Amino acid sequence: MSSHSSRLRTCSFLAVMLLSPRIALGADDSADLQAILSRNIIGPHQTMTETQTYVEAHIPRMKHYDSAFTWEQEASRIREEVLDRIVFRGQAADWRNRKVRVEWLETIPGGPGYHIKKLRYEPLPGLWIPALLYEPENLSSRVPAILNVNGHDGNGKAAAYKQIRCINQAKRGMLALNVEWLGMGQLRTQGYHHGRMNQLDLCGTSGLAPFYLCLERGLDVLLGLPNTDPARVAVTGLSGGGWQTIFISALDTGVKLTDPVAGYSSFVTRARYLKDLGDSEQTPTDLATIADYTHLTAMMAPRPTLLTYNAKDECCFEAGYALPPLLEAARPIFRLYGKENTLHSHVNENPGTHNYEKDNRQALYSMLGEYFYSGDATFDAKEIPSDRELKSKEELSVALPERNEDFHTLAQAISRDLPKHADIPADKDAIAEWQRVGRQRLRAVVRAKDFTIRGESAGVETKGRLKITYWRLRLGDIWTLPAVELEREKTDKIAIVVNDGGRRSDPKAIDRLLNAGYRVLALDLFYFGEARFEQRDYLFALLLATIGDRPLGLQASQLAAVAQWLRVERHAGPVSVVAVGPRMSTAALVAAGLDENAVGDLELHGPLGSLKEILEQDRSVEQMPELFCFGLLEAFDIKQLIALAAPRAVHKRTLEMQPRPAVKP
C-alpha cells in the first residue's frame, strides 16, 4: 500500500469501524442471489445507444456564413479558443512561449541529389524529438518545405512508405523534414503511450499540448532553415499522421498546403462508425465544445487542401462515409473565397486499404506541383523509384539524451505540488465555508448534473423472505440505469451498492447487508456492469469528455440522484453507499462531496488512498477512464474529497469481498 493510503487512514475526519462479520451463504442461496443480480434489465445496447444520441446532440455543426469576412472572424475565434482553452491549459501555457531548441548531429549520405541530416529538437522542456532532414544538394534559393508526420506505425520515421515520400520530395528540390511521433519508432516506450497523455489531464495540464508542440516546433525547425520558402510550406501524413496534419494545418496559418491521408472524420461520424473512434489526442477533452473536425477542415480555406481517403480502409476513416461530410462542410467556405477549386479530394482504390502507397503519394506530388511549382513544365508527378535507397532503423537512428521526458514523467513532476487547495481548516466555521466553496469547485471540475429520476418497474418477485424489484431508472430522459432492489424485512435502513465489477459480481456483499437489516439497491452506474459498452468502451468515455462532460461527474451525479430518489420516492431514511473497488469508491466520494443531503455514510472497499496512486501505478486511460477527469487532482485529492463529505462517516476497508478487477499493464 502506498504512503498516500497510510495517510488516508490517519485523517482526523475518517471514521473507521469494524463491520459485523458476514453470515456465510449456503450454496443454494448464493446461486439464487447470483441469478437475481445477473438478470438483464436494460440489455447490452442501451448505454451505447444513449451515449451515441447524447453525444450527437452536443457536437457543434457548421453554420451558414454569408461572406468570407464573417467566416474569417469565426475561424479566428475557433483558433484562439482551441489553442487557449484546449491545447495550452495548465503548465502547457508556459511551454507555449519557449523557443525551440535544435541540435544538429551527423549528416549521412542519401541517394542521388540529396543527403540526410540528423537532428533532435526540444518542443517542451526535457522532451526531445528525433528527426531527419532530407536536403537537396547545392541549394541556392528558397524552396518548398514539407513537414512529414507519421501515424501508428511502430517503424516510425523509418517506415518505407514515409522514406520514399521524403526521398521523392528531396529529389524534386524540396526540404523534407521527417519527424518521429510520440509513441512510435525511437519513442515507442510505455511513457509515450497515447493513453498516458491523460495523466497530464488529471493534473490540469493539457495532455494534448505535447502533441501540438511537437508539430508546431517542427514547423519552426523548417521555417528556420535559410532555404525555406515560407510561402510554400506543407504538412502531410497517414492515419495518426493525417490527424496531426489537419490539426496543425487548421490552427497554424503558416501551413500553406495540407494533405491529411486517412486521418480523421467528424465526431458525428465517429459516434456511429466505431472503427473511427480515435485515441486520446484525437478526442481531447472539451474540443467539441468549440469545434468539430468539419470546422477544422473548413478552416483550411482558401489554402490548397487535399483530402485523401481509401475506398476499402480496414482500419478507419473509410472514404465512403468519412469524406462526404467533410467536403459538404468545407466546400461552401472555399466558395466564399472564390477558391472552390483549391479543395481537392482523392480516393485510393488500389489497394484501397489503409495506406500511403504509390497512388496516394503521387496524388500528393501532383498537388505540390500544381500549387508550389505552378508554371513549371518540367515538374513530373510520377514517383521516382527509390526503393534501393531505403535505410534501416539503425541507420536512421538519432542520438537522444539518456533521460527524455514523457507523459508519465511530466505528469509526476506537475503532481508534486497538487492539489492547489490542499489545506483543510480545523475550525468548524472555517471548514463550513471551505466545504461550500469546495462543492462549487467540485461541481465545476466534474461537470456535475442534476437529474430527475423516473423509476420504471421491470418486474417484481419473491423468493422466500426476499422481495425483489427490478428497476429501470430513467435519469432526465437521457440515461437508463439498471438496479435490483432487495428486501428481507421492513426497514428504514437502505444501502446502495456499486461495484467496479458490476452489480452481479459479488452476491456475498449484498447478502451481508441484507443480514445486517438493510434494504439494498444493487446499482450499475454508467460504464459499469450492465451499463457498460460491448466494444470500444473507453473511447466512448473520451467522446463524452470531448463534448464537455466528465464520465466521473456523470457517475457521481447519477449516484447522488438515485440516493435522492430513494429518500423521496421510495421513502427511505438516510441512504448509505457501499462502493467496492477504487473506481466506484472515487465516484461515491465525489457524489457525497457534490450533495450534502442525498448521500449518507459511505463504506468504501479498496479505495484509492490518493489520486496520485494513478500516477504512481502508471495507469492509462484505457484502464480507468473516469479517473482521468481533467483537473481533478489539481483541485482535490482523496483527503479533500473526504473532508467535503464530513461530518458524514466514511468507513474504509481493504478489498476482501472480491479481488480488484485485473487491468492491463
Give the key terms.
665 residues, alpha/beta, Rossmann fold, nine-stranded mixed sheet, eight-stranded mixed sheet, 37% helix, disordered N terminus, disordered C terminus
Topology:
Layout: H1 3-9, H2 27-38, H3 46-58, H4 68-87, H5 92-96, E1 101-111, E2 114-124, E3 127-136, E4 143-149, H6 160-171, E5 175-179, H7 197-202, H8 209-223, E6 228-238, H9 240-251, E7 257-261, H10 267-272, H11 293-298, E8 305-310, H12 319-336, E9 343-348, H13 358-372, H14 393-396, H15 407-415, H16 428-446, E10 453-463, E11 466-475, E12 479-487, E13 494-499, H17 507-515, E14 519-523, H18 537-546, H19 551-568, E15 575-580, H20 582-594, E16 599-605, H21 612-616, H22 632-635, H23 638-645, E17 650-653
Helix pairs in contact: 19-20, 20-23
Overall description:
Strands 1-2-3-5-4-6-7-8-9 form a 9-stranded mixed beta sheet, sandwiched between helices. Strands 10-11-12-14-13-15-16-17 form an 8-stranded mixed beta sheet, with helices on both faces. The protein folds into 2 domains: 27-57 and 428-653, 3-Layer(aba) Sandwich (Rossmann fold); 101-413, Alpha/Beta hydrolase fold, catalytic domain (Rossmann fold, 3-Layer(aba) Sandwich). It has 23 helices and 17 strands. Helix 19 packs across helix 20 (582-594) and helix 20 (582-594) packs across helix 23. It starts with a helix and ends in a 12-residue tail after the last strand. The protein has helices at residues 3-9, 27-38, 46-58, 68-87, 92-96, 160-171, 197-202, 209-223, 240-251, 267-272, 293-298, 319-336, 358-372, 393-396, 407-415, 428-446, 507-515, 537-546, 551-568, 582-594, 612-616, 632-635, 638-645; strands spanning 101-111, 114-124, 127-136, 143-149, 175-179, 228-238, 257-261, 305-310, 343-348, 453-463, 466-475, 479-487, 494-499, 519-523, 575-580, 599-605, 650-653. It is α/β, with parallel strands linked by helices. A hairpin with a 2-residue loop joins strand 1 and strand 2 (114-124).
